[in-house]
Sequence to fold (63 residues):
Amino acid sequence: MNTDQLVQDILKQLEVTYSEKEIKGMQRFGITAQKLFGTRKPVLRQITKPYRKNHELALRLWD
Fold:
């Protein structure tokens, strides 16, 4: 699977785990951004664990 496909796959997984409740909780602590997924940290770790050492993927997701 190439990097573009991985980015799309991870973004889809984040959209599935979207939580308005989590976003409101983040905002209470002053966390604001243009794009928030509201994904809980344990779920985020589970999604990203297989890609921990893929720096190219990390850079693409950061942009």
Summary: The two ends are 20 Å apart (CA to CA).
